[in-house]
Design goal:
Helix content is 53%, strand content 5%. With 170 residues, the chain is mostly helical. It folds into two domains: 31 residues, no CATH class; 129 residues, Peptidase M41 (Methane Monooxygenase Hydroxylase, Chain G, domain 1, Up-down Bundle). Strands 1-2 form a two-stranded antiparallel ribbon. The longest helix is centred in the middle third of the chain and has 21 residues.
Amino acid sequence: MVNTAITQAVHEGKDKAGMADFDYARDRLMMGIERKKLTMTEKNRLETAIHEAGHATTAYFTPGAQKLYKATIVSRGGSLGATYFEPGSDISQNKRKTLAMIDSAMGGHVAEKLFIGDNKVTSGCSGDFQGLTDMAYSAVLGFGMFGEDIGYMSEDFKKLSEEMKAKVDN
């Protein structure tokens, strides 16, 4: 991070790196390299802003959610925008935090449905859905947070019987 901050400061003709350079370095390491050449239409920018605002707003109003670090519509890596959270002070996860993370992940989708329309929800939700589905399966199978019948095993979902998969899904 220090090397990236110093490189940024030198690139801008500074004698030493300041807080703005360290913020730049943190963002670059956490979020990836900014894709400056990607051209987005104003409609795409608005849809991305609505989606990210949905994540941020949901997290803000959800008890147990992680504290918001930054929401951006600057394209980095494979995404058009992103919402980032500060790392939690607790290392372990609990049911309340897990549900808050799932709610926050769904916030982008819900915002798109409300402000763009049911039939115009974008593909930007796909990564969120995959992440929250994985999180939910981990909570059910690995952490025992949601039921006595299936909550005390750590098993690969693919190896389960159809009956057990149905219980997990329920």
